Amino acid sequence: MSENSSDWNPERYARFADLRLRPARDLAAQVHGLPEAAVIDLGCGNGPVAEKRASRFSSHALIGGDNSPAMLAKAAETGRYDVLVEADITHWAPRHAPALIFSNAALHWLGAHEALMSRLAGYLAPGGVLAVQMPRQY
């Protein structure tokens, strides 16, 4: 995620949706047997994975988080999120232990991945899953 959330343009981001979503679909297909708790779409952007997450995990509340108000506004238009939260992933923490923290193409923008992954995994409910896809940007 960009240091400056005003840099994100939902329309420009949506032009590459298929390329961006293929790894997300592959990753989500590996997630099974979640406990009963919320599913978090961390770095949800304009909501491109909302449809699949909502249908695949229909018994779970779907919470999206992003640091861009413009992206969250577009994500809200999907009608798939139960809650949307404006937050910087660096400082984000869930209110309740989630069943799944799913992040597609967002965490690579952050540093200190070993500490970040440990922190995120520590938030999970017992039996929960941390599912992360990070493209190699550089």
Question: What does this molecule look like?
Answer:
By secondary structure, this protein is α/β, with parallel strands linked by helices. The chain contains 5 helices and 5 strands; from the N terminus they run ααβαβαββαβ. Strand 1 (39-42), helix 3 (50-56) and strand 2 (62-66) form a beta-alpha-beta unit. It is globular, with a radius of gyration of 14 Å.
Main pleated-sheet profile: 5 strands, parallel
How many DSSP E strands?
A: 5
* Mean pLDDT over the residues: 84
How many helical elements?
5
Distance between the termini: 14 Å
- Strand order of the biggest β-sheet: 3-2-1-4-5
Strand content: 15-25%
Shape: globular
Share of residues in helices: 25-40%
Order of SSEs, N→C?
HHEHEHEEHE
Summarize the model shown.
The chain has 138 residues and is an alpha/beta fold. 31% of the residues lie in helices and 17% in strands.
Topology:
Layout lengths: L9 H5 L2 H12 L10 E4 L7 H7 L5 E5 L2 H9 L5 E4 L13 E5 L8 H10 L6 E5 L5
Parallel strand pairs: 1-2, 1-4, 2-3, 4-5
Keywords, separated by commas or semicolons:
17% strand; 138 residues; 31% helix; five-stranded parallel beta sheet
